[in-house]
Amino acid sequence: MFDYFLHNNFNLKLLCIDYPFDISESTYPNLEVIKIKNNTHKIKILKNLKGDMFFTTTPSIGTSIFPKSKVYPKESRPSYMYLFHSLVSPNEMYIKNSFKNFDVIFSPSETISKQLKILVSRDTEIVTSGYLLFNNIDKYSLRFSKNNKVLVAPTWGKEGVNEILNNINQIYDFNSKLGFETVFRPHPMTDLKKFDIGSGIILDLNLDLKNLHEYEHLITDYSGIALEYGYLTGRSILFLDVKKKIKRKVGKLETSYLFIEDEMRTTLGDIAKIDDLSKLKQFPEINQNEYSKYINLINSHLESLEKTIDYLGKF
What we know:
Helix content is 24%, strand content 16%.
């Protein structure tokens, strides 16, 4: 999406801590990069924003640490657009009011759109556009060469990830017993200095999805990377039986929902306790038909960029 706006001469302001793209402001006069120095600087910028549209993958707009624009007249303030960067359900793993104050939310699937409806205000529009992170990846062009590597990639949060990292050597031993190297991909917010990561464990610091096909198996907990890995590779996943990151208690209307991050754990693979890994003789076998049906269900719209741009034509 950024490339679309950049190359179609929209006037862009990019708010960032570190410059994330290999492009130059001098090359694109329609681009202004604003580097955020600290939290005070960020809040000042956000409160004085002018423009037509504001895009973010960070939830909880309209809070004290992530305020909306206060400029006058109101018509000069932007419309606030949320883009999902995960395919898990929005109900338990996000804090209260994470989505309430957005003007538009681009949802990656019909399932998430339905689960969002009671979490937003009456003025929020939910657009089922598809998952933008899949837009530039053709899964059929990915070629897999057997390299005997397993990716361990937990979600972020002190619950499950601490248990996984504190027992990473057991996971390493399990992989080694089956003839696999262990590659650990931390969430960008995980402070690895707090943990003893063995020298035999390789770190994967990639933030995108383009190398997921290099791994023969995935080990995770409740992370949305399982859905991305499943869509792009169709290979089995081992889900660890650790504490789920729950940031919000669901309401009565949500108790009938089947949360994606729970349902995927028995559809895309099997669940195992860390202490039981030594008893396993292989990674889980999968029912490919059920696997494919589920992946298609939670990612029912694929032409995400086209749908998103088409909708934005009204602004």
